[in-house]
Specification:
Length: 141
């Protein structure tokens, strides 16, 4: 409903969910309480930098047999674009993205959050990923 009634808010909440999700995952997976506190309490690097450079330290899952990134490009790329769109909407007063673009962002955020659950050892989460994402991890996931 928020997508139709207030797409600006929907975009902002979707990006925030991804940002909070990666920070909560990293804090839960960290080796010490102090590291977890730092991750949760201080301003973090941009979302895509966390996904591409920091997240691989916390999972041995790879997006393909050749040792690709932990999170496949078809997920992190829309998240990167969503962060830029959110910044434009919030800080520059730009128009929100189209319904189609917003739907693609929601799918990427949804898969990303389920991936974080899967990376944390919750095997059930893999079943909730879109097929394209499941296939990025091979036939068995």
């Amino acid at each position: 409903a928020l997508e139709r009634e207030n797409p600006r808010a929907a975009l902002t909440l979707a990006v925030t969910a991804a940002e909070v999700g990666v920070k909560q995952f990293a804090a839960a997976q960290s080796s010490s309480a102090s590291e977890g506190w730092l991750i949760s309490s201080i301003q973090s690097p941009p979302l895509v930098r966390l996904i591409r450079r920091y997240l691989p330290y916390f999972t041995d899952k790879k997006a393909n047999e050749k040792g690709g990134p932990a999170v496949p490009r078809h997920i992190w790329k829309p998240l990167e674009e969503a962060v830029d769109l959110r910044n434009d909407v919030v800080h520059a007063g730009e128009n929100p993205p189209s319904e189609e673009a917003l739907a693609q962002i929601f799918v990427a955020v949804n898969d990303f959050l389920y991936l974080l659950d899967w990376f944390a050892g919750n095997e059930w989460a893999f079943r909730h990923l879109q097929e394209q994402t499941k296939l990025a991890y091979g036939p068995t996931g």
